[in-house]
Amino acid sequence: MTSQTNPKTPGPRSGAAAPAAAAHRWAVLAICCVAAALLGIDNSVLNYAVPSLARQLDPTSTQLLWIVDVYGFVLGGLLIVAGNLGDRIGRKKLLLIGVTGFGAASALTAYAGSPETLIAARALLGLAGATIMPSTLSLVRAAFTDPKERTTAIGISSGIAAASFALGPVVGGLLLDHFWWGSVFLINVPVMALVLVAGVLLLPESRNPNPGRLDWVSVPLSIAGMFGVIYAIKTAARDGVGAHSAWIAAAVGAASLLVFLRRQTRLADPLLELKLFRNPAFSGAIGANVVTMFASTTLSLGFSLYFQVVRGWSPLTAGLALLPGPLSAAFAAPLCAVLIPRIGRARTVASGLVLMAVSTAGLGMSDTHTGYWQLVPLLVLNGVGIIFTFSVTSDTILASAPRTRTGAAAAISETAMELGGALGIAILGSVLSAFYRSNLTLPGGLSGAQVDAARESVSGGVETGGRLGGTAGLQVADAARHAFVDSLHTTTLIAAAIMTLGAVAALVTLRNVPAVLPEQHEYGAGTGPSSEAPAGQASQSRPLPTA
Fold this sequence. Notes:
disordered N terminus; 18 helices; Growth Hormone, Chain: A; 75% helix; globular; disordered C terminus
């Protein structure tokens, strides 16, 4: 049982000031949500601009791959460093630096005149995104100290972040229908300018008052390790596990991470605080996030192809078709604050994973003529499951870390999700491709090049059929569509099984985590006043609930 201060002790604000303080907290949430949502949109919009920019800039195949991938490489490699930097220099300061950089890099990206400039601009976007991601979560965590309000706020933030990924195709489709490819990036500039002005005026500063020395040796080790691992996973997913560059990157990344982790155990002020993982609430929530991201990539990957290639819908129509899932996640987010006190955190996370498993299996049973309105309830169910999982795990991760380390905790959470998503695309994407090739039965009379193109992917199969024309072309295209649908059936069942196992694991790992998580001021403790205070203010003691 944690100790409590006197519940009758008056807080720092009372009477007429309370509504103003509450309004200010929700304004902080709104600013952070807008910044995080723009990152989500930007992360998914590029794929829809690639055909247009490829025609204008004429990049080589290698340059095109770097244009697509460099953002994720830099973002994933710098999250841990950026989260720690926010704890040290101030999370507001780091967010405002990142917002400014993101706006400038977006303008550079929009007007890039060569592939090399575009690659550099996308790398700068990844750098700025790495500073924004952990800062938004940790600022929300600092603003909402009441456990119930904090859970609601983080749930809303998670819901909007989930919805933003699906808005990318919609925003991209609308802009590309009327403007040039750079418009999908230029739209970031006024939004980030608005966030910058609002952030300067309204965001409170918070930081670790005693961060200790920054170990400069750990910084390059962390970057090299994360960059190498993410590069290896993405390269293996695209070029196969036999790709030499993937193995070299994996070796460099693994060796760097091993040295980095060993070094962290010996430092008084480590860059990555491994003590966080001693808390079962923290480690259990991180594990649930990895499983969720790993398995849920099947839908985002498979159904983008299903709607656009199998059904022949435009990118904008496909984006709109997927929108019910993320929108339901945004609207269902506040329900988590109601569910947690009634059934607990473990059961809420497990329920979310079960809902995702059921909806994933159901969506995977679609055929080439399934009516869209049959899919809508399953998409809604999937969105609700996602938010039941992510809002609770995000709140658990941030609440179970000391307030002085919320930036680092948020960075670990985001890094784990990046790795889970990359692994899901690499492994389940490979499974999907392997089943597609094994299920594909092509008619005779095709050349070797035509067979290879059709077997490469469902897009290649449909395009090969279109180029052939006539009866043979129709047979090739239909064979590709049916082979892909059959492979989607099997792959989504595998993903659903993984989610079900994740639900069982969540029940075990989070079973002793209380519904109400008090403020953490030491590792694994929730007693005493916080050692961290907003910049310029003294720390205030407040009543703490019993764990």
